[in-house]
Amino acid sequence: xxxxxxxxxxxxxxxxxxxxxxxxxxxxxxxxxxxxxxxxxxxxxxxxxxxxxxxxxxxxxxxxxxxxxxxxxxxxxxxxxxxxxxxxxxxxxxxxxxxxxxxxxxxxxxxxxxxxxxxxxxxxxxxxxxxxxxxxxxxxxxxxxxxxxxxxxxxxxxxxxxxxxxxxxxxxxxxxxxxxxxxxxxxxxxxxxxxxxxxxxxxxxxxxxxxxxxxxxxxxxxxxxxxxxxxxxxxxxxxxxxxxxxxxxxxxxxxxxxxxxxxxxxxxxxxxxxxxxxxxxxxxxxxxxxxxxxxxxxxxxxxxxxxxxxxxxxxxxxxxxxxxxxxxxxxxxxxxxxxxxxxxxxxxxxxxxxxxxxxxxxxxxxxx
Length: 368
Ligand SMILES: Cc1cc2nc3c(=O)[nH]c(=O)nc-3n(C[C@H](O)[C@H](O)[C@H](O)COP(=O)(O)O)c2cc1C
Description:
The chain has a single domain (4-356), classed as 4-Layer Sandwich (Chorismate synthase, AroC fold), CATH 3.60.150. Strand 1 (4-5) and strand 2 (10-15) form a beta hairpin. Helix 1 runs antiparallel to helix 3. The chain has helices at 37-47, 106-113, 130-146, 169-176, 186-201, 229-237, 259-262, 333-356; strands at residues 4-5, 10-15, 21-27, 63-67, 69-70, 73-74, 79-84, 150-158, 161-162, 208-215, 243-248, 266-269, 272-275, 283-284, 287-288, 293-299, 309-312, 319-322. The protein has a five-stranded antiparallel beta sheet with strand order 1-2-3-7-4, with helices on one face. It starts with a strand and ends in a 12-residue tail after the last helix. The protein contains eight helices and 18 strands. The longest helix is centred in the last third of the chain and has 24 residues, at 333-356. Flavin mononucleotide binds at residues 55, 104-105, 122, 125-127, 130, 240-242, 300, 302-304, 328-329, 332, 335-336, 339.
């Protein structure tokens, strides 16, 4: 499938940066999921551009629920959300319209869509489309919360500044919901912001690492081979533009450990099997083991920078020089965090529905 993700809970996203609107359709989500509009707004707000560390393009990102919701509950039929593009300035792109931005998808999109793509503001490849993904993920999160499954993402590292690690998952996951610059240590967050602004002043951009935790995930979810829990989450996470790597638990560091250091020893605590450590990131054999599912993903520096760079004209094939105008994020990491949370929620909802059925998240019901 092309712009659709999922097997039981399927999410399709559509739209372009400078088109009239973007949106998402969720099909297969249980009926009777109560939408928590405070949570949905908090996720949309966290992704929205704000302040010196974000693009100057500001959108209100109001979601119009045009189908699949009645009296604040999902109906179980396709749930369609539209988000208008209001603050569009296509003129910013006219001078460089046919110059492939280094690091962006202009050249690869040309190869796939043969010039028919809408390249304005990055078109369908723009970070703008992640507003629709965030909305879809927030709806899925409402379903997960019914099952006490909570998700959050923080900036583990940005431009060389490191946040502290999770110490109390539940409390910290809850506190991250309201943060627009999602760090556990706010002082480290201020230093990250200073680095982002410094890079912007140098006509440049920076990247970093996001860390996501899913708690309350029941053991036994995932498939042993192709549709492993890591595989499906990774599939979803790599849909977020700008993500270039992912690792679960101790990740690449396992390569340097002894088995005795890496193994997570199971222990029965009051009748519940848990593990003394979580180097596996909550997944063994592609299947959840009941520990927090923890992963980190690498977010690249924003490709559109104002520095002079070499490029190629995608119409003529000639070498050229590009100096990018327009409004861009000097770092995307803080805005990508709620998007990674969103795609994780979609992936987890889909995996749980595959395991337990598409009524899994239904609450109550009336009549027969
Ligand atoms: C929330 C968000 C905002 C983004 N903002 C910008 C931006 O302002 N300028 C830009 O060049 N890229 C931005 N990106 C990244 C590009 O969309 C992405 O690098 C591009 O589509 C190419 O995809 P790739 O990096 O996965 O190869 C943003 C990504 C996200 C997730």
